Amino acid sequence: MLVTAAFIGPGTVTACASAGIGFGYALLWALVFATVATIILQNMAARVAIVTGQGLAEAILAAASSLPVRWAMAALIFAALGIGNSAYQAGNISGTAVGLSLLGVKSDALTQPVLALAIGVVAAALVIIGKPGWLEKLLIGLVLAMSLAFIGGLMVIDVDWSSAARGLLPALPADSLFTAIALIGTTVVPYNLFLHAASVRGQFSSDRQGIAAASLDTAVSVTLGGLLSMAIVIMGAATSALPSAGAGPLDEVALRLEAMFGSPARIVFALGLVGAGFSSALTAPLATGYVLAEMMGGSSDPERRTRIFKRTALAVIAIGTAFAVLAVNPVELILIAQSANGLLLPILAAFLLWVASRRQSLGSFANGPLANLAGGSVVLVCTLLGLRLILRAAGVWP
């Protein structure tokens, strides 16, 4: 459930709401692909961690054949997580503030920075004093609240289910490629691979039964997250005939739902947005702290690792809070960051596929031909989508 709490954030709400408002149901297929790809990759990350007893960053760096390769991998991991998560954190905090404002918490130009600062302070306090067990319970509670809000919201709106079914067939309407990659990038999140690996060590036994239990846990949680994302797209599509409310995607759907079905629909959607924002405001810094602690903490010095973990997590919260307090509009930043995630994903997924295939460290739990075929297919599709986006940006692809 940590993975679901992490990838259903304001970035997901932004990308999914934008997809629904702009392209109707046409891009639902991208979320189906992204959900299946997430299950495949998260299973590999969990298996590597359970069998080796290492975090994913540790396993990747340990498998590097030379120092230059190790440094290159470390730089890529840091860029994908340290820099990217600091940018996402601004959106997480701002998205939580938007959700609170839609619930009726006043958020004019004077109080919005104060609200963002308060959210950042609460997140920092939970990281400092929180225990892993009850932090996980809090995040699971937020995921269940999101589920009731977003999936329950489908019960009160008019959905064209035949059009939604057609959206499961792969197609790219005009100007939709950027949004399709953003949908994949907001679901198959690189930092979730590292967060998942860090969280499952010690929770499952390193035998067939433990690996099977971890796989079931992943499949159920990620499928729930995929359904939540699809629900947001469907909400956006169901309101797309209404004129724009003049707001950003984070609250456009809520205002349109209110116009169609009254304030209860807005409140339900806002509760989901608050859950999405605050759960991601915790998991993004936690994931970054885990990874930096793995890479710099030293395996024989738990106290040093703990210090690096907490300082890194607090730094991510501080940077995100600063941007949110300065009222930097996060919407464009989030969409660009999600697309950057989609471009970085093939590289990190290829690293994971390589590590999960090494019999030297995983023995009989290493990837077999079927797992390599599935993982390789994910890497290939993500690479082709990313390459097409780059070529279109360069004016080479129409």
UniProtKB/TrEMBL annotation:
<keyword id="KW-0813">Transport</keyword>
<feature type="transmembrane region" description="Helical">
    <location>
        <begin position="267"/>
        <end position="292"/>
    </location>
</feature>
<keyword id="KW-0812">Transmembrane</keyword>
<keyword id="KW-0769">Symport</keyword>
<feature type="transmembrane region" description="Helical">
    <location>
        <begin position="334"/>
        <end position="357"/>
    </location>
</feature>
<feature type="transmembrane region" description="Helical">
    <location>
        <begin position="71"/>
        <end position="90"/>
    </location>
</feature>
<dbReference type="InterPro" id="IPR001046">
    <property type="entry name" value="NRAMP_fam"/>
</dbReference>
<feature type="transmembrane region" description="Helical">
    <location>
        <begin position="219"/>
        <end position="247"/>
    </location>
</feature>
<feature type="transmembrane region" description="Helical">
    <location>
        <begin position="138"/>
        <end position="157"/>
    </location>
</feature>
<dbReference type="Pfam" id="PF01566">
    <property type="entry name" value="Nramp"/>
</dbReference>
<keyword id="KW-0472">Membrane</keyword>
<feature type="transmembrane region" description="Helical">
    <location>
        <begin position="369"/>
        <end position="391"/>
    </location>
</feature>
<feature type="transmembrane region" description="Helical">
    <location>
        <begin position="312"/>
        <end position="328"/>
    </location>
</feature>
<keyword id="KW-1133">Transmembrane helix</keyword>
<feature type="transmembrane region" description="Helical">
    <location>
        <begin position="177"/>
        <end position="198"/>
    </location>
</feature>
<feature type="transmembrane region" description="Helical">
    <location>
        <begin position="110"/>
        <end position="129"/>
    </location>
</feature>
<protein>
    <recommendedName>
        <fullName>Manganese transporter</fullName>
    </recommendedName>
</protein>
